[in-house]
Amino acid sequence: MFAHLPAAEPDKILRVMAEFAADPRDDKIDLGVGVYKAEDGTTPVLKAVHDSEARILERQTTKGYTALSGDPGFRNAVAELVLGDVPQERLATLATPGGTGAIRQAFELARKAQSDLTVWLSDPTWTNHEAILDAMGIRWRRYRYYDPATGRADVPAMLEDLGEAARDDLVLLHGCCHNPTGADLTAADWSALGDLLERRGAVPLVDLAYLGFADGIEADLAGLRQLSHRLPEFLLAFSGSKSFGLYRDRVGCVVALGAGQQAADAISGTLASLNRHSYAFPPDHGARIVATILGDPGLRASWTEELSSMRTRINTLRRSFAEALTEATGDPGWQVLAEQRGMFSLLGLGDDAVRQMREEHAVYVVGGGRINVAGLTPASIPAAARAIADVL
Ligand SMILES: Cc1ncc(COP(=O)(O)O)c(C=O)c1O
């Protein structure tokens, strides 16, 4: 059976991680990794997570199955966190394995509702968006998003392309901290997007994988809430991996709003059946950690503070790196790195430059020059900036 099975294309980011691990040089710098890193290079367990977990261990009396849609306490807590005012009668939620699971189930839901589905993706976007849609055989189109010349979102171009979106097309948007560009939308941009989606009858799917990493929890939610508050239909895929540091525990949630109670009931039922047909019950441990944190004022305050320090570290590194690059290259255009948000930015390096950075400077970045700012430290910034200036 498997003699003719074609080899699977290895994931580019995972390949960079493996190459970095195998590099014996002491001064190597990993800017390819996709996870948050603290100053000492670790991806720590948050104290709020640790305390919440201890509480669960002490109090949990069963490991029996949860609901097919996952723990209602978790789902409601996430819906409240992201939407603020939750129109309960229009709400449907689903716990999933990670944000990736939420994205996949949201695509499945949309295809069940609209068999001739088209999904619009920003150019560029997280490579897994395209990969999942290709694996599912769902048609997708790109809308222009990032302008490499300015390092910012090209909003007129985005709106022009999305002007071609048809009723019931799905438009995938990054809630904040656009991956891989770091170029986010302003409040006015979200508002214009809301106008356009309303006019076209297209449905947003907001991928929210970096809540709290840009400007703060409420600030990071303000844009997407402009859509959830005004549009009749709204989909969101939440990931707890980065914001709660729960990567391997696989915490995710689909948050959906239907036009009314009847639609919400149909969405709920369909979502539950999607879990049933994929893996039956979703993972519960990480979800319960999140629900415990969000439901306890002390743990929630502790989490908010830790999230804030991760954000401050990233934004401070962004400013220092922008300065160092400006100095090393003499090009003030690099200052835009300090304006961008989240862990990722695109340096616009070709394959040769990426290889040269790796071979000559032991600096690892993903193809196309995506860097994870959190992989820097104040000590490694000058060397990383010099390496970039050298290969440019
Ligand atoms: C843009 C984006 N969406 C979703 C995810 C999903 O993350 P996870 O499945 O680990 O929760 C990621 C993770 O890297 C991401 O970058």
UniProtKB/TrEMBL annotation:
Question: Which E.C. number(s) belong to this protein?
Answer: 2.6.1.-
Q: Give me the segments passing through the membrane.
A: none
Q: Which SUPFAM superfamilies match?
A: PLP-dependent transferases
Q: Does the keyword Nucleus apply?
A: no
Keywords linked to the UniProt accession: Aminotransferase, Pyridoxal phosphate, Transferase
Annotated GO MF terms: transaminase activity
Q: Which cofactor does it need?
A: pyridoxal 5'-phosphate
Would the keyword Transferase turn up in this protein's UniProt record?
Answer: yes
> Which intervals hold domain Aminotransferase class I/classII large?
27-388
Q: Which family does it belong to?
A: Belongs to the class-I pyridoxal-phosphate-dependent aminotransferase family.
Q: How does it assemble?
A: Homodimer.
The name this protein goes by in its record: Amino acid aminotransferase
Task: Please name the source species.
Answer: Tropicimonas omnivorans
